[in-house]
Amino acid sequence: MEKNEIRKSVLGKRNNLSHEAQCLKSEAIFESIKNLAFIKETTCVASFVNFKSEVQTDAINQWLLDLNKILLLPRIDPSRKIMQFYQVTDLNQLIVSPYGIREPNPLIHPHHPSHAIDLVLTPGVAFDNSGYRIGYGGGYYDRLFASISEKVPRIGVAFAIQSVPNIPTDTYDQPVHALVTENGLKNFKTPTASL
């Protein structure tokens, strides 16, 4: 299957999950993330804010703040095709973009360069058995991964129904090191011994 076909198929399955199922599966994913010892060793975590039928991340992000982590959340500038991360200390201060995505407010949230990131919690539409992912087509996370050390853990966060056997790859595609679903952690490639 081509990427667009996979994207359409998986989004259809994800969008068909009931709100109750999304909540229950998101809670299970949160519990799995809380049990990942290596997260507690990090200082600066790049996470994301869920949009539409994605895994719900508010509880995860609040937990990271409660652990006194530096929480970085993305802001996308589609006109310049860039994604930048800003430090957020209060999730209630997020603003809604023209696309309906909650994101940091650059007027009050400080920008952080990507080289400061210790761990990336990564969204996606689909993930395959080698850690390759399909996003929404903007290439933002591929460019982020290319700009940071290979040693920085990249952890996909998704529902199990978003797993597919194989995704066609291009030279610029960057895999995640592991995937957390409601079924637990699946390792693909270990960047550090602590993962």
State the gist of this model.
Its EC number is 6.3.3.2. It catalyses: (6S)-5-formyl-5,6,7,8-tetrahydrofolate + ATP = (6R)-5,10-methenyltetrahydrofolate + ADP + phosphate. By secondary structure, this protein is an alpha/beta fold.
Please render the helix and strand layout as text:
Layout lengths: L2 H13 L3 H16 L2 H4 L3 E3 L11 H9 L3 E8 L4 E6 L7 E2 L5 E2 L7 E2 L6 E4 L3 E2 L5 E2 L5 H8 L6 E4 L20 E4 L2 E4 L8
Organism: Fusibacter tunisiensis
Family: Belongs to the 5-formyltetrahydrofolate cyclo-ligase family.
Catalytic activity: (6S)-5-formyl-5,6,7,8-tetrahydrofolate + ATP = (6R)-5,10-methenyltetrahydrofolate + ADP + phosphate
For CATH, the homologous superfamily is named as NagB/RpiA/CoA transferase-like
Termini separation comes to: 32 Å
Class derived from helix and strand content:
alpha/beta
The rounded Rg comes to: 16 Å
Give the CATH class: Alpha Beta
InterPro entries: FTHF_cligase, FTHF_cligase-like_sf, NagB/RpiA_transferase-like
Pfam families: 5-FTHF_cyc-lig
Catalytic activity: (6S)-5-formyl-5,6,7,8-tetrahydrofolate + ATP = (6R)-5,10-methenyltetrahydrofolate + ADP + phosphate
GO molecular function: 5-formyltetrahydrofolate cyclo-ligase activity
Describe, in plain words, how this protein is organized in 3D:
There is one protein chain. With 195 residues, the protein is of the alpha/beta class. It has a single domain, classed as NagB/RpiA/CoA transferase-like (Rossmann fold, 3-Layer(aba) Sandwich). Helices cover 26% and strands 22% of the residues. It has helices at residues 3-15, 19-34, 37-40, 58-66, 140-147, and strands at 44-46, 70-77, 82-87, 95-96, 102-103, 111-112, 119-122, 126-127, 133-134, 154-157, 178-181, 184-187. An eight-stranded mixed sheet has the order 6-3-2-1-7-10-11-12, with helices on both faces. Strand 8 and strand 9 (133-134) form a beta hairpin. The chain is globular. The model has no long low-confidence stretch (mean pLDDT 92). It is an enzyme of class 6 (ligase). InterPro entries: FTHF_cligase, FTHF_cligase-like_sf, NagB/RpiA_transferase-like. It catalyses: (6S)-5-formyl-5,6,7,8-tetrahydrofolate + ATP = (6R)-5,10-methenyltetrahydrofolate + ADP + phosphate. Its cofactor is Mg(2+). Belongs to the 5-formyltetrahydrofolate cyclo-ligase family.
